[in-house]
Amino acid sequence: MSLAEGVALTRAVARSGCTYLLAENFAFTAGTLDLRRRFAAGEVGRFLYGEGEYVHPLTVDEWNEYAPHPEHWRNWLPFICYSSHALAPILSVTDDRPVSVTGFDLPWQPDDPGIAGTDRQGGVGGLAVVTMASGAIVKLLQATMAGGRVVTRIHGTKGAMEVSREGGHEDSERTMLRHFVDVVAGREEPFFDVHRAVAIAAVGSQAYRSLLAGGQPLAIPNLSDPAEQEAHVADDWTPRAPITGST
Predict the structure, then answer these.
(1) Distance CA 137, CA 130 (A)
(2) 86 near 137, Cβ under 8 Å?
(3) Are 20 and 13 in contact (CB under 8 A)?
(4) Per the CB 3.0–4.6 Å rule, which of 15, 139, 151, 195 could disulfide with 164?
(5) What is the pLDDT of residues 154-206, one digit of tens each?
């Protein structure tokens, strides 16, 4: 939830000598893996622009089942912080790294049927615009509004490709666990190691921090760099505080 926690996790993994893998299932769907193969083969050229969407509408009854009390994380966590399902597939396909982010809120309306009657605080979704190390720009949308779907879209210098579906995890957990077993056995390197995991989380928290600052772009530090770790070891800002109004 904070950059300081990111530093602590990064250092803990380094001290442990153990295997770390972020269990982000949406990066292991058949569609995402196909995009990764095609991108690696050079089919779309150099990465220019990407879009990741995770729009998951819920009925009031479903929401209250998943988030049964006001302090449940689904009720207070800003949607823009729930960044992994939208961002991880793009990182998996392009092997790029986020370096800055600007965040925007999709405000809640009192007559919204997906929120009214729940303990949900804040807006119905969040939008983040991310600048990547390559110079590419990525738009992320995370929301509970109507029109649910999951999208990964990649535009390059030679063409574009995308995978889109209304929902479901397909066989992603099985594929992800197989990858983890191969990592532990030494047959593969973990793609979502602690550095990529922390970067994904930092995009979400820094995007929320950005929108509270009026849309000011904020850096995503590279916490694999010891100097960057030291610079953020005491940065304990977190979006955990209860949210009010449209934020």
Answers:
(1) 6
(2) no
(3) yes
(4) 151
(5) 999 999 999 987 777 878 999 999 999 999 999 999 999 999 999 999 999 99
